[in-house]
Amino acid sequence: MQYHTTHRQSLLKAVILWISFTLVPLALSAQNFKLNNGEGEVKVTGTSTLHDWEEVAEQKSGTIVLDNTGELPKISSLKFTVESESLKSGKGTMDKNTYKALETKDHKEIVFELKSVKSISPVTSASNKYKAVATGSLTIAGSTNTIDLPFNLTIHEGKILLEGKKGLKMTDYKIEPPKALLGTITTGDEIEVHYNTVWK
């Protein structure tokens, strides 16, 4: 009985050690990066019957979990958030109309969350730069759609750079394009989101 108990304990220890040595390298290979709000820029551009416009996001946050030990980097998670009322155009009236359209009292954040990486491939001119397309859910003003988000991914000196742009339609998120001056100025339905972000 003593022999069987000791043998069973030894076997259990061996299994625990094997699991530990197997999982530890996997844990070490995946790194967690956080968006640096102080660097880079996220802006939204669009048109109106009067002039083109842009709004810059002053408050943004996010995390990426990335494994760069293989031939191609693997992104296992990506979440990106912009505070709705941090979008600033430099014009108070326009900002108020934007916040009204986005219903910011009830929906304080714009959020993209990764579902899968559709494609990733190296850029031939640089060893640390890749073109990627991520499929994920984008939530604006309480409405969520699945979109493909294209970006260039650069890994450099402990940082990740994500750069790209994505066209969207406000009406796809049940947003009525803002109007001004009693409806004489109307914002175009199509907008473009430009992102140049730094993650550490």
Automatic annotation (TrEMBL):
PANTHER family: PROTEIN YCEI. It comes from the Bacteria. Gene3D superfamilies: Lipid/polyisoprenoid-binding, YceI-like. This is YceI family protein. Residues 53-197 form the Lipid/polyisoprenoid-binding YceI-like domain. Pfam families: YceI. InterPro entries: Lipid/polyisoprenoid-bd_YceI (IPR007372), TTHA0802/YceI-like_sf (IPR036761).
